[in-house]
Design a protein that fits this description.
With 163 residues, the protein is mostly beta strands. The chain contains four helices and nine strands, in the order αββββαβαββββα. It has helices at 5-10, 55-63, 92-95, 154-157; strands at residues 18-24, 27-33, 36-40, 45-51, 65-70, 98-100, 107-109, 114-124, 130-142. The termini are close together.
């Protein structure tokens, strides 16, 4: 552990590990995210923190839709196509196995246990290197029944994205 107690405390918080998908016209992208939370029961709002300089930020800003692909721990390999930024992996969408979601057309990765389609309601500039994308859940599908203990998280990936 470092001497930075704030960083150490933030790293103690559990984080999920999801594929964030978005689409605008002919441009679609997949990236991994972990700062995700339901924010409201009615309407059902989901907030996602993403870097405000990544490729997906421009796509979600222009297209106004996003999806969250949820994976089980046992299906960790299925999220691999979402890894790596578009700058380093410009062909990652060609390599990814996905189908368009029925309401928004955002990519649904093969192997996902479930997905949620959202329409963006607002983008909140929080003054840092990430912004909050808020979307209303408009459709979802569950392909594999599971509970929170079975869902892939940063812990199972051996990663840390906090501090």
């Amino acid at each position: 552990m470092s001497d930075d107690t704030i960083s150490n405390a933030l790293k103690m918080m559990p984080y999920g590990f999801y594929a964030f998908t978005t689409k605008s016209d002919d441009d679609a992208n997949i990236m991994v995210v972990n700062w995700v939370s339901q924010m409201s029961f009615s309407p059902r709002l989901i907030a996602v923190g993403i870097q405000n300089y990544c490729h997906s930020y421009g796509v979600v800003s222009a297209g106004g839709v996003f999806g969250l692909n949820i994976f089980l721990q046992a299906d960790e390999a299925a999220i691999k196509p979402a890894l790596g930024g578009r700058a380093k992996r410009p062909d990652k969408m060609k390599e990814a196995d996905y189908t368009p979601a029925p309401e928004t057309g955002v990519p649904v990765l093969a192997g996902a246990a479930a997905y949620i389609e959202c329409k963006v309601t607002q983008i909140v500039d929080i003054g840092g290197d990430h912004d909050i994308i808020v979307g209303e859940a408009i459709n979802a599908e569950i392909m594999q029944e599971a509970g929170p203990p079975d869902v892939l998280s940063l812990t199972e990936m051996g990663w840390s994205y906090a501090g």
